[in-house]
Each structure stands twice: as C-alpha cells, then as structure tokens.
Design goal:
homodimer; two-stranded antiparallel sheet; alpha+beta; 313 residues; ten-stranded antiparallel β-sheet
C-alpha cells in the first residue's frame, strides 16, 4: 500500500470528506494530526427519535435506531496497521477511545458503548486505512447481558470477581498465559471460541473501560501493540476483530464485571454447525497457540516486542 | 463444474474413500445410488469416551468430545446444487436426514442433533459436491437452550406455542410471508439476523424434526427446493447455511417448541460490532426481500418454482 492515497477519505488532505470532526489529537513532529474521530458516513444509528419500544401487532416490537456510530482514524498514514505503529500512536488511539466513551456516557439515553476494530478483508472491513469504530446504543443485547449475568451470579455466590479469580488461576497454571506485565495479562482463553483468540485483561479491577485510569493507557498501548505485532508475525498479517468488552454505562462501579480487550483472528469461517447449535469447533488448542506466541516473541531480534519478550523470558 | 470429478470423494466410483457407509438410498433409473450417509472423515466428535465433566482447577471444566459427525452426500452428481435438484432427490435427502436422526436418538447419550448444510465458499464449506452434515452431541449449548427457554416461558405465560402464534400473526399481516402451502409457511422473519434470512415453518405443531411425519416430507422437499431455487435466481447462486432447528431428543413432545428450517444467505460479513455486542446490523428489511422473492417467483416461466408461484399468485 502507498503511504498516502488520494482516494482514501481517511488520508490527510481529504478531511473535508469526513466532516463534523468530533475529536482531533494534534500533530506530533511532521504529521498533520495524530488521530481524528468523525461520525460514520453510513451510520447504523442516529440520535434522532424516541427510544421507547412500539408494539407491532401482538408479538412484535420495535424501537427506532437511536444511537451513535463514530469512526476513529488511527493514523494519518494510509499504510500502517496498528501492529506496526509506535507505542505513542497506539496510546493516542486509546486516549481517543476513552475521551469519546466519556463524552458519550454523559448522554443518559446511551447505556452501552462498544468500541471495536476490524482489520483485513475477512474481518468485514471495507477500508484499508487503519481505523476503529464506536457504537453507542440505548440497550445491551441479550447476548451481552448474559455475560454480565454470569459474572454477577458468580459474585453473588463467591463474593469475588470472576475475572479476578480467573487471572489468579491462569497465572498459577501458566499454560495459557502468553505474557504478564505490571498492569496486564495476555492469555489465550480456555475453550477459546476461535484459534489464536487473545485476551488482554487488566490485573486491577475496573468494570468499565471508562473507569480505567488514563495515566495507565500507555501500559495497554504497549501490550496491545506487541500482541498485534506478534500475531502479525506468527500468522502473516491475519484479519482480525477486536472488541473492548466493558460494563454498561450504568454499572461502571460493578464489583462483578471486569473489562478486557478481546482479539479474534479470522482464520476460519463460522459455518452451519456453529450457526445452528451455538457451539464452536476450534481446531487449535489455546495451550498450543499460547506456547507458539511465547516462542515467537523470544525469537524477535533486539528490542522488538519487548512486552512479550520480557514477560516470557 | 463437471458432472463427475475423479478427485471428489463424494463422486460415484470413489465410495472406498468414504468407508463405513451408514445409509444408502438405492438407485433410481441410471444412477448408482441416490443418497449416501457416511462418517465425516475429519470428525469433530467421536463416540469413545466418558460424557461426564472433569474439573480442571477451581474454575474450568471439560468433557471429552463425545458425539457423532456424519456427512449426507445428497446426490451422485458432482455439479448439481440442491436448488436445481428434482423434488424426488430433495425428498430422498430429507428421508436420509430423518432416518439418521431416528437412529441416533436411540443412543441415550445423544441429546441434541443438529442437521445443517453449508453451500458455497463463504458458507465455510470446503467441498463443492452437494452435501449436508449431522452432528449429535450429549448437550445443547446455552445459546440453544435460550431459544427453547424463551418458547417455554411464552407457553407457560400464554398457554400456546410461540411459533404457532407467530405463524397466525404473520399470515394475518402478510408482509413477510413469501409463500404458504398446505403444510408450510415460508417467511422472512421480523428483525432478521441477516439479509434474505428465510424460515420454512410447518403449520402443524411438532417440536422435533424427528416427529414430523415422513409421509409429509415431500411437502417439505417441494417448498425447500423452490425456496433455494428462488434464492439462486434472486441472488445469483448465493453462499448460504441452513440448519434444522429442532428440540432436544428429550423434549420431542414439547408443546412449546416448534421445529423449523432456517436459511441464512452469506451476503455480508459478521464484523466487530456483531461479535462484540451480540446485535446484528441488517441492511435489508425482511418486508422488502419477501416482496422481491414473491415478485421473482411470479416471473418464472411455465411451471418453474410452482410452490412459491401458486402460493403468491
């Protein structure tokens, strides 16, 4: 890919194609800007309309698509994926995520804020210039509520956070741990949904990404960038999605949930069995892929991927 | 595609590549056989092992992959998709589904039997020769239990089957109905997960596909083949998955659940938002796609696609 593409709406000089800028992190050195956040040009949702449900006959209900759909343009460079960015650049992206999260939770209609990234054609993205998205909605889906409910049931039963206990147990067993830093654990979860699924979990307990101290975002930038770099090298620049799995905006102080960042490489295709049954066939054990990542990190020359190398050596 | 492919394990003459045949429907006219059912050569599960869960530390549990994974070879012809088969051929496939279902439910370890089909590269299939698969497991996934639970809650509350009520309501409103036959309704469900999602629902109440009268399978064969034919023509041979959504083997007499066949064309890619939030963005309204299918069916010359044409004219 070229460093700059005349026809790319995210490239410098084409800012007029993405109007109503919501946030701009200013330039470092020779760059025109560092990160821009703009409304999605083809938004799935808009802030107009009533959030109340309407009955449609006896069984069916609908509500207008009230919400927000934004794009985080992660870099002015057309051809730099996050795996190859500097730590400072990734930190700026994370700062932009958190600033937008905090701005949007002020709108009391918005209860659930999903921040995610699609990288590579198989991930569902249509633009190659590195970017993430944010969607804020008045509801969490039943699927997501279930995750929260499982954690809350555990808390009610045991009196501790499920994720805090999981981190302790995984660190003891060490089989699925890829790296451990001062603030984070990188692991391949037990019974992973897809091969090479990778979770970055903060060691400290915060239910919401919005509560995570901004001053610690450089720790997240380091482990996130190094994780993506290692996946890039292990799997030859794989397509992936990542999502920040966080509490609803109403439960940010929740003692039972624990935000984390979940990376799902798109190496296989979900087919009829998964769709029909809700069970997932994973052809690679997380214990094996965690070991492959640890070994790969140790093989990098010099000071490449220091977070993973230091943690695993 | 050629009619016969020397290197295809499903083509006649290569039967030795798929040994331990479980079922063969005998030849009609000049065909060597009509349908064959064989074990999957790369099975996700096997019948060896204990189905009990084992603890792994304090939080994690596992069980051996006990179950059955079979392949239904739908036709001896290498190049005939189900959309272009004769009704008799499709009926034979359905008879094979049901025979295998009934044989497997006799094994009391197997509680959940998923029958599904992947068609086209984007559906996750690796072999082009038309085939379906069957997976039988000792458990239903939480995802599927939820479907059953929602229907059971409705039954407890209202005293009627949710799906029976849905059929009545949809037929009254008529917006999402594509076709209605003596035994079946074809509709695009309200708030469809994906564009052109199509459900074939029996009008009569049976919780389980295993309880559906074999004598009525030719009705299903007609509407299934015509639905796939119409999708083939509307969307230029789209990739799709279909699944037979049926009760667990223990609840085949359940008054609250109602089996149906669900077709999901693979026109779009699930991306980070769907993965993270559990909500699905559908860019085409089911009311619009149902109308497109009705119109398309009426445009077919002669007696093509009679089930849909008769029902909609």
């Amino acid at each position: 890919l070229p460093e700059w593409d005349e026809s790319c709406p995210f490239c410098p000089g084409n800012e007029a194609q993405t109007p109503n800028e919501l946030l701009r992190l200013p330039a470092l050195e020779t760059l025109p800007w560092q990160v821009r956040v703009v409304p999605n040009r083809f938004p799935a949702l808009s802030l107009d309309g009533d959030i109340m449900m309407k009955e449609e006959g006896r069984l069916l209900r609908k509500r207008p698509g009230v919400g927000v759909h934004e794009v985080i343009i992660e870099t002015p460079s057309h051809n730099i994926p996050m795996a190859l960015m500097t730590y400072e650049q990734v930190e700026s992206v994370l700062i932009a995520y958190q600033e937008r999260y905090k701005a949007l939770r002020e709108d009391r209609r918005l209860k659930f804020i999903t921040i995610f990234k699609n990288h590579g054609w198989a991930s569902g993205t249509s633009l190659v210039h590195s970017h993430s998205q944010l969607v804020a909605t008045p509801v969490a889906a039943t699927y997501y509520r279930q995750k929260l409910d499982v954690a809350m049931d555990y808390y009610d039963d045991v009196g501790r956070c499920l994720y805090c206990d999981l981190i302790t147990e995984e660190l003891e067993r060490a089989e699925r741990i890829v790296a451990e830093t001062e603030e984070f654990v990188l692991l391949h979860p037990y019974a992973s949904r897809v091969p090479w699924e990778s979770w970055i979990i903060p060691k400290g307990h915060w239910a919401s990404f919005g509560q995570f101290p901004t001053a610690l975002l450089h720790h997240l930038a380091m482990i996130l960038r190094d994780t993506l770099f290692c996946l890039y090298k292990c799997l030859d620049n794989p397509a992936f999605n990542y999502t920040i799995e966080t509490s609803t905006t109403e439960l940010e102080e929740d003692p039972s949930y624990h935000w984390h960042l979940r990376i799902l490489p798109r190496l296989t295709t979900i087919a009829g069995f998964e769709i029909g049954s809700g069970m997932y066939i994973n052809i690679q054990m997380p214990e094996d892929t965690a070991e492959l990542m640890r070994k790969k990190a140790c093989s990098f020359p010099g000071d490449q991927c220091p977070t993973l190398k230091r943690a695993t050596s």
